[in-house]
User: Fold these one by one.
Assistant:
Number 1:
Amino acid sequence: MFKSGFVAIIGRPNVGKSTLLNQIIGEKISIVSNKAQTTRNTIKLILNDEDSQIIFLDTPGFQNPKNKLGEFLLKESESSKAGADIITVLTDISDSIGKMDGIILEGLKDTKIPKVLLINKIDLLENKEEIKSIIEMYEDTGIFQKILPISALNNEGLNDYVKFIKDNLKEGPMYYPDDYITDLPEKFIAQEIIREKALIYLDEEIPHGIMVEIESFKERSDKKIIDIDATIYAEKDSHKGMVIGKNGAMLKKIGTDARLDLESFLDTKVNLKLWVKVDKNWREKERSLKNFGYK
Ligand SMILES: Nc1nc2c(ncn2[C@@H]2O[C@H](COP(=O)(O)OP(=O)(O)OP(=O)(O)O)[C@@H](O)[C@H]2O)c(=O)[nH]1
Ligand SMILES: [Mg+2]
């Protein structure tokens, strides 16, 4: 019997949802940074096996929206639950259930499908005994069929998690060809790789106002190199200056790191050209959000 299904991963920003899924898939598809709200679209990551296909949905971090982009992110997270066969909630080693986690749990109380809780970042626990009381705290909610402490970063506890998913999958079709690990086009992943480098290097409020658009993505006819032209959008003129940096140093750093990742992802040489433009307050404008694919 072939089993398959959709597994939504939800949780606050920065708890490690994308790290977890990249680790399970064994390839870096979903971008990761230490800034909240790194993920902006629901991203499908596919785990293929001889007798099963699991489609994981990596969602934007669950938080109170502060602008139109935030409203879109919350909707993405909410709607991923609707199409899921199994729900995974990811949290970290905090010793109390915070406000946002409380809202997430409340929203799951009446959901009938299997639910699993992963307590991530146990590598950061100084006293390993502490995990017991954290597990008990979540057991008391009575919401989850399974609660597992994990470290997504160190690949700890992930086999048990995948086993739980497989045990709870139902008979189903192969939704995607068995060599697919995502349904995303290369162009989208290229855009995300560039955005990740900007997120990693830029500080304070700038990263959240960054958007990347791929202007052109062309393979040369001899197939030995891919030319990529991309624009980084910032929200303010002053932010544009910081993305470029002194004598272009910041843009160069972002470009070099992005090119190296692109070459490894696309398995070919890449010629990357970056531009920086300003689109004022695009996070509040329906039209810009639509243009950038957040609709
Ligand atoms: N120490 C430790 N850090 C981790 C672990 N998992 C993830 N991180 C770090 O946590 C940060 C956030 O990781 P992401 O995977 O981007 O988190 P996310 O939940 O997808 O965040 P959003 O997309 O913003 O909602 C990164 O700096 C990761 O390296 C873990 O198991 N241990
Ligand atoms: Mg993420």
Note: The CA atoms of residues 75 and 286 lie 15 Å apart.
Number 2:
Amino acid sequence: MSLTTYAEVRPWAKAIKHQVLTRRMPPWGAVKGFGAFRNDRSLSLPEIALISSWVEGGAPEGDREFATPFHAHDGDEAERQAGRMRVRGAHVLKRPILAAGVSVGASVRVPWLQVSAHRPDGSVEHLLWLREPRPPGMLDYWFLRPLALPAGTRLVCQPGSAQVDVRFADEQAVSGRPGGQPLPAE
Ligand code: HEM
């Protein structure tokens, strides 16, 4: 069903309140505070409170003059060109990469999923924690900032039966791009 206009949304107001209060909608799944993502579409607490009180207040139509234009996250060039590295269990990097995100496929059927990167110097980056990944579950989690990971870094995906694609740009390719600037890394 479409929820893009007031007329389409109004009959569903009560259900919408329930969906956002239980955080079932919009589907996102990543545990807060574990990684940071630029396409995070989950709602903030003030947004949830706003929707909930709008429904309680009779779900009135707003002033069209203040309506924000509708736009979807289409992804940028860097996201489209990002390579994929399959990680099932553990995978040790043979060359440095700039990790850009994690893609979780629709076939993942596990009660929870965690992805982390263990650098050779002992530092650990927590990349993603999903609770109850469920179909369609096909989602790309793009990091707020690309992460420089040296050769020898161990990428770990748990539980061992699950697999994800770590999305990356080749560090050499990025810094050697004609006229290109290396992406800022932490
Ligand atoms: C009556 C209330 C709603 C119902 C029954 C509903 C149902 C669904 C279903 C069945 C799906 C696809 C399967 C899934 O991911 O579980 C979906 C996807 C989605 N819903 Fe809802 N939804 C509701 C309200 C909302 C609201 C209020 C939002 C935003 C605040 C929202 C945002 C989304 C988004 C972003 C997707 C994913 C679309 C995509 O990836 O293409 N939904 N919804």
Note: Residues 77-175 form a domain with the Jelly Rolls fold (CATH 2.60.120.340).
